[in-house]
Amino acid sequence: MAGVALLGATTVGVAGATPPGIPSTADAQSALAALTVQPDGSQDGYSRDKFPHWIDQGDSCNTREAVLKRDGTDVQVGSDCYPTSGTWESPYDGGSWTSPSDVDIDHVVPLADAWRTGASSWTQDQREAYANDLSDPQLIAVTDNVNQEKGDKSPDQWKPPSTDYWCTYAKMWVAVKQKFELTINTAEKSALTDMLGRC
Question: Domain GmrSD restriction endonucleases C-terminal, which positions (predicted)?
Fold first, then answer.
């Protein structure tokens, strides 16, 4: 029943996933100007295990399954919430997939980047909330190998292959950094400024 309710909320025909909370260009530019600029901190002590993710989100769904349902078109799920059919359009590269195993759930601001820019001082509960955040533009379904190419790189080091998506990607990145009070470095700010200039 939960799957049917969520399926009803899926917008058919929209090209690509649309996470919640993407700000306007003006709001993103204001937020970017207000972020603290400083060199990234150390990677020492980082582990993905310090960001427990794909936790239970209710209705038998974990976070990954919830995003697959949200970001796909005509998604049907089994009693365990795992998709049995659907189509996923990856806005990063324009790829279209019908198998959920071809789709990764990307943390727009990667866990390791968050660690270097403020999350190393968070509690485990705070990191878990960050890694499973469904209310901000932090999680998105994308082509798996594109996500793997991205790794933990910031926008000065990696941008989506589809240049048409750079504006939206920058708006999402800035929104997450603002929400979680994470810092940015000078190269990252320059790249984000350029990307928002394409909006």
Answer: 82-194
